């Protein structure tokens, strides 16, 4: 490792290991919380929980539940409530995110004619698998004080095995059991998510900034939108996970929030980022300070100043999505009956393209080292 000077940019692609999400074989999503429990909180992608209406959209409709939107109103059966833009849903989030409502809501949206792409993460399951194999995940601290997992060669092997191999398969099966024609994809499949491999990450060790070499992460620069469009037009719901495909043809890790942003931008979609709070707060300790919308550059500056912890990454992803061409980004509460419908109907924090103004590169928080990107890999 070599030391760097203090003039380097302090913005990085890290997420706290206490704010990650995963799936397990029994319940699905697990998160490392701070509740004081003996183990990680679970938040089931559980087929038994999701399929409470006979396992099909038809049964769900017959039961009457799918005729209700989040505000208690009836769905417009003429289809007038269906927007032209697809919806990209990032399922996951910090601590107590329960994806059960999101799975049911995806079925609701698809049954009403909406095109949906789901993106998920799952670093907790990667960590647990590493630990089961007798290896400890490696975490590093950035100069900005954020802690994230460093993906070395062994972690990348486990990551590839767990994310597209098990977690994506489990989520696809759960969605299909709910009547959704889900189809799983990693960023490698069909060159869906491609870009430059990162060569290093800036870290702090013993109070000094250093460069830690490790080229098992990347920055998404291109999305195969034609592939997604073909699948959507055929009635499928693509369920996307990293890894991405690096420019040298090797799978590497990438951040799942930013993967969702890249997909939404490429499709001109609305991006709904589901988390465990109702949106971005001016004061995270005061639920009355929810920021309902950001429409101007000044609003964006205030939003970036208000975001703390894992929410910083959500705001970063929102900007990147809009820069890429997304119609809108909403950061919203996953733990509602109809979390996606609620978000599209006005819930959460809405970020519109107007926040970009005439600026470019607002959301680029990567560190360039020798022409390559410094980065991190957390989901």
From TrEMBL:
One of its GO terms (molecular function) is kinase activity. Residues 1-46, 343-379 are annotated as: Disordered. Transmembrane segments: none annotated. Its EC number is 2.7.2.17, 2.7.2.19. One of its GO terms (cellular component) is cytoplasm. Residues 1-14, 364-379 have a biased composition (Acidic residues). InterPro entries: AceGlu_kinase-like_sf (IPR036393), AcgluKinase_fam (IPR004662), Asp/Glu/Uridylate_kinase (IPR001048), Glu/AcGlu_kinase (IPR001057), LysZ (IPR037529). It is an enzyme of class 2 (transferase). Residues 354-363 have a biased composition (Low complexity). Pathway: Amino-acid biosynthesis; L-arginine biosynthesis; Amino-acid biosynthesis; L-lysine biosynthesis via AAA pathway; L-lysine from L-alpha-aminoadipate (Thermus route): step 2/5. Keywords: Amino-acid biosynthesis, Arginine biosynthesis, ATP-binding, Cytoplasm, Kinase, Lysine biosynthesis, Nucleotide-binding, Transferase. Residues 87-333 form the Aspartate/glutamate/uridylate kinase domain. GO terms for biological process: L-arginine biosynthetic process via ornithine; lysine biosynthetic process via aminoadipic acid. Substrate binds at residues 149, 253. It catalyses: [amino-group carrier protein]-C-terminal-gamma-(L-glutamyl)-L-glutamate + ATP = [amino-group carrier protein]-C-terminal-gamma-(5-phospho-L-glutamyl)-L-glutamate + ADP; [amino-group carrier protein]-C-terminal-N-(1,4-dicarboxybutan-1-yl)-L-glutamine + ATP = [amino-group carrier protein]-C-terminal-N-(1-carboxy-5-phosphooxy-5-oxopentan-1-yl)-L-glutamine + ADP. Its main location: cytoplasm. It is found in: Cytoplasm. It comes from the Archaea. The record marks 90, 314 as: Transition state stabilizer. PANTHER family: [LYSW]-AMINOADIPATE KINASE, N-ACETYLGLUTAMATE SYNTHASE. Belongs to the acetylglutamate kinase family. LysZ subfamily. NCBIfam families: argB (TIGR00761), PRK14058.1-1 (NF010659), PRK14058.1-3 (NF010661). Involved in both the arginine and lysine biosynthetic pathways. Phosphorylates the LysW-bound precursors glutamate (for arginine biosynthesis), respectively alpha-aminoadipate (for lysine biosynthesis). This is Putative [LysW]-aminoadipate/[LysW]-glutamate kinase. It comes from Halobium salinum.
